[in-house]
Amino acid sequence: MLARRLTRRDFVKAGGAFALTAATFPTILSSCLGGGTSGGSKTLKILQWSHFVPAYDKWFDPWVKAWGQSKGVTVTVDHITYDQIPIRTAAEINAGSGHDLILWIVPPSQYEPSLVDMGDVVKQVEQKYGPQLDFAKLTNFNPHTNRYFGFTYSFAPDPGDYRKSLFAQAGMSDGPTTWNDMLSAVTQIKSKSKGAVRGGIGFSPEPDSNMAARALIWSYGGSEQDKDSNVTINSDAVVQAVDFMARLFKQAETSEVFSWNAASNNQGLVAGSLSYILNSISAYRTAQASKPDVAKDIFFAKPLSGPGPKALASEHVIQTYVIPKFSKSQDTAKEFLLYLADHASDFVYQSKLYEFPVNPTTNAQDKLYGSGGWPHSDPYQSDPVTKLQVLKDATTWSVNVGYPGPASPAIGEIFDKNILPSMMAAAAKGDKTPKQAVADAETQIKAIFANWRQKGLVGGTT
User: Can you give the pTM of this predicted structure?
Assistant: First the structure.
């Protein structure tokens, strides 16, 4: 799912149940947890990515450790870059030891056989805060096996980030509303700046390029699969989307877009070399601290419309905790996740509104969606303070990787191998026609689906 291609075929079936008296935990756990580690002091080892909003980690680490102290649990938190999470997860599962909780920012579905079922946690949280949003359920639940292989608790919206002053020069001071609008504007901006300021949609083996490819395909009415996990990538709609991306590259971008990492578009926007990117608000938050004049000029747009029926965006980040079966602190890990869900307003605020909860009635509800809530009056001093109100309805236009179907192990592998941005790049470089690029992608995708269907983890027939 990230910049490096990883092998997902090594699954460890080790692990098992560890007994502990349920009475040692709060009532909320008694109906869903069978106990915890028996004997000795309790520990909880957490592995997660270094947050794109660094202030979040500075809050989270002492916060979770304080929770541990109140429960007699020694908590350790290790942070690594997001692209190392899959590598460490695979290594720990293969070794049969490591962290008790691992936080992913993209669907970890391909590890399902080695992960603890989290249905008990999901149900407890839903009883208190309402059912998970559809895209969250499709991220942490496999309908083919009827298992929750993770616990998804938050997501980051993925709006368009644009430089208002530059788009004003193209007659779009309020930003683009369609892909064609965006193409027209970034083409004009590149021409007027003599190539100094370019479009910022990537074609690289990294998450943002994956998300952009999917958003464009959906806007044309295409998808990589249908709701029943049948492969649908080879369609006229997808071919048209690939053709659009090839035109975008030729008119408004340079070859830099083929070798980006996930930070490149953020850096380009803040540096002033990119006029429009698809991203979360993290680049903007960085600019607020480092380049306030640039931050003042960064505004946000909803997903761009295409010829298809609806404008959609993939969630930029979808946070899902998993518990490997080898963990000896499974119940302690689940207890903490329930505590985390109780503190939605804290993780939203401490992430500087980067994260939104995926259950509809948490204690962050009024602060995010009520009159005069945070998006309408940014507590982190946006100028104007209403700048983030575009995110208020993000739950209505955000969907999961693999939409309209689930984020299955097959979809996870397609993301891992960067098949969709590679398909776009092949056409943009002129190596293949759009039709050839899509046909080749279909061959790869069908082979991946066939492999996972053999393992009994993915539905569909075609």
Answer: 0.89
